Amino acid sequence: GPEATAVQARPLLAGEHLTLDGRLAHPAWQRAPVHSQFVEKFPDTGAAPHQATRVRVLFDAQALYVGVEALDNAPGQIRAPWVRHDGVNRTQDFVVVYIDAIGNRQSAQFFRVNAAGSLADGMHTAADDSEDFSPDFDFDAATARTAGGWTAVFRIPFSSLRFAADPADGSAQVWRILVGRRLPREQFYLVTSALLPRESASFIATMQPLQGVQLPERHQFLTLRPSLTARSRRDRPAGGPALNEQALDASLDLKWRPLHELVVDATLNPDFSQVALDVPQLAGNTRFALSFPETRP
């Protein structure tokens, strides 16, 4: 089919910094081109959406920023529950950003945030049109409610994106992007920033080119995430002296990308208090051992 309309990105000016508050009030957002050509995917493929959605893209030397305006003429119907990480689903109002930074149309990383600010991420594979929530990428997003709906701002570090080396022939890489929005109302609505043909086996093939992004000359990225956990214990045994114990535990997560094809993840003294709990499973009347996905750093 015809090439989807490209989404244009604009750089932040020297000295500009974005505060991740979910709002699009910074002057840089007003300079960014607006993409508003959304179409309905469900339930009526190709129809004009009932609610308007607008997208802007900015970047600096470290990250990509995606700002989304989710307009709604009935903001009281927005469903915005707080959910656990990767618990964002179609029963909630959310926006999702798919990025294929390799440009081969075989897979895409996705980043979701619902209207309450809960996050989810993973990989979408074109071969079987499936989503895998087990990968956890270093990204952040914030949302804000407005009189006319809600807004969301994503910060996606380049260190979290999987992109190929510069082509040997000097041609520019083609990054691809797609923004989707879920609206659970009397029906489950899905609108997207490009038309997704009903007969298409996977939407990855119809993602839009993302133009204007300029990576630093050296594709080396380093992300450090320190944490500090305080513990306090007080006890007064019968007939004995009072016990008062305090302890501090420091930990560090490191992500280093020395080459485009090599990512080094390391953890020093991991803080397991921040690891997601296993989802309970029924263990009765089964002949097989329970299997839980890995959630440790």
Q: Can you characterise this structure?
A:
The protein has 297 residues and is an all-beta fold. It has one helix at residues 27-31, and strands at residues 7-11, 39-42, 53-59, 63-71, 94-100, 107-114, 119-125, 130-132, 140-146, 149-157, 175-184, 188-192, 208-211, 221-235, 243-259, 262-268. It contains one helix and 16 strands. Strands 1, 2, 3, 4, 5, 6, 7, 8, 9, 10, 11, 12 and 13 form a 13-stranded mixed β-sheet that branches. A three-stranded antiparallel β-sheet has the order 14-15-16, with no helix packed on it. The chain is globular and about 75 Å long. The two termini are 42 Å apart. The mean pLDDT is 87.
Key words describing this protein structure:
297 residues, mainly beta, Immunoglobulin-like, 2 domains, 13-stranded mixed sheet, three-stranded antiparallel sheet, 1 helix, 16 strands
Note the topology.
Elements: E1 7-11, H1 27-31, E2 39-42, E3 53-59, E4 63-71, E5 94-100, E6 107-114, E7 119-125, E8 130-132, E9 140-146, E10 149-157, E11 175-184, E12 188-192, E13 208-211, E14 221-235, E15 243-259, E16 262-268
Largest sheet: 13 strands, mixed
Q: Structural class, judged by helices and strands?
A: mainly beta
What string gives the helices and strands in order? EHEEEEEEEEEEEEEEE
Q: Mind telling me which CATH architecture of the largest domain this is?
A: Sandwich
Low-confidence stretches: none
Given the C-alpha coordinates, what overall shape results?
A: globular
Task: Determine Rg (CA atoms, Å).
Answer: 22 Å
The number of domains = 2
CATH class assignment of the largest domain: Mainly Beta
Kindly state the number of beta strands: 16
